[in-house]
Design brief:
alpha+beta; 2 helices
Length: 81
Protein backbone atom coordinates (compact mmCIF):
# COMPACT_ATOMS: atom_id res chain seq x y z
CA UNK A 1 0.00 0.00 0.00
CA UNK A 2 1.29 3.48 -0.87
CA UNK A 3 2.32 5.82 1.92
CA UNK A 4 0.04 8.87 2.33
CA UNK A 5 1.44 12.11 0.95
CA UNK A 6 1.41 15.58 2.50
CA UNK A 7 2.06 18.95 0.89
CA UNK A 8 5.29 20.63 1.99
CA UNK A 9 6.93 24.00 1.55
CA UNK A 10 10.73 23.88 1.68
CA UNK A 11 12.77 27.01 2.40
CA UNK A 12 16.25 27.20 0.87
CA UNK A 13 18.96 29.23 2.61
CA UNK A 14 20.40 32.36 0.99
CA UNK A 15 23.71 30.64 0.25
CA UNK A 16 21.99 28.08 -1.98
CA UNK A 17 19.59 30.32 -3.94
CA UNK A 18 21.81 30.09 -7.02
CA UNK A 19 21.55 26.28 -6.72
CA UNK A 20 17.75 25.98 -6.44
CA UNK A 21 17.58 23.39 -9.23
CA UNK A 22 20.18 21.21 -7.53
CA UNK A 23 18.29 21.44 -4.21
CA UNK A 24 15.04 20.56 -6.03
CA UNK A 25 16.75 17.54 -7.61
CA UNK A 26 18.03 16.41 -4.20
CA UNK A 27 14.52 16.75 -2.76
CA UNK A 28 13.14 14.73 -5.65
CA UNK A 29 15.77 12.03 -5.12
CA UNK A 30 14.70 11.90 -1.46
CA UNK A 31 11.10 11.13 -2.35
CA UNK A 32 9.50 14.54 -2.82
CA UNK A 33 7.33 15.15 -5.87
CA UNK A 34 8.49 18.69 -6.64
CA UNK A 35 5.63 20.83 -7.95
CA UNK A 36 7.03 24.36 -7.99
CA UNK A 37 10.44 25.98 -7.66
CA UNK A 38 10.07 29.64 -6.65
CA UNK A 39 13.66 30.81 -7.03
CA UNK A 40 13.17 34.48 -6.16
CA UNK A 41 11.42 33.48 -2.93
CA UNK A 42 13.76 30.62 -2.05
CA UNK A 43 10.84 28.17 -1.81
CA UNK A 44 10.17 24.76 -3.27
CA UNK A 45 6.75 23.17 -2.92
CA UNK A 46 5.60 19.63 -3.49
CA UNK A 47 4.30 16.41 -2.02
CA UNK A 48 6.16 13.81 -0.01
CA UNK A 49 5.29 10.98 2.38
CA UNK A 50 4.10 12.39 5.69
CA UNK A 51 7.12 10.92 7.52
CA UNK A 52 9.71 12.33 5.06
CA UNK A 53 10.18 15.69 6.82
CA UNK A 54 13.42 14.73 8.68
CA UNK A 55 14.95 13.38 5.46
CA UNK A 56 14.05 16.50 3.49
CA UNK A 57 15.38 18.74 6.27
CA UNK A 58 18.76 16.99 6.14
CA UNK A 59 19.40 18.08 2.53
CA UNK A 60 22.19 20.62 2.12
CA UNK A 61 20.73 24.10 1.63
CA UNK A 62 17.35 23.37 3.23
CA UNK A 63 16.59 25.53 6.27
CA UNK A 64 12.98 24.51 6.95
CA UNK A 65 10.34 22.04 5.83
CA UNK A 66 6.77 22.99 6.69
CA UNK A 67 3.65 20.97 6.06
CA UNK A 68 1.01 22.99 4.23
CA UNK A 69 -2.26 22.55 6.05
CA UNK A 70 -5.62 23.08 4.39
CA UNK A 71 -7.98 25.52 6.08
CA UNK A 72 -11.58 25.83 4.95
CA UNK A 73 -13.96 28.46 6.20
CA UNK A 74 -17.71 27.81 6.35
CA UNK A 75 -19.84 29.42 3.64
CA UNK A 76 -21.12 32.96 4.31
CA UNK A 77 -24.67 31.75 4.96
CA UNK A 78 -23.61 29.19 7.60
CA UNK A 79 -24.83 29.77 11.14
CA UNK A 80 -22.37 31.48 13.49
CA UNK A 81 -20.75 29.06 15.91
Amino acid sequence: MARPLAKFSVTVDDGHLAEMDAVAQALSASGMQVERVLGTLGLITGRAPVDARPTLLSIDGVTSVDELLRVQLPPPDAPVQ
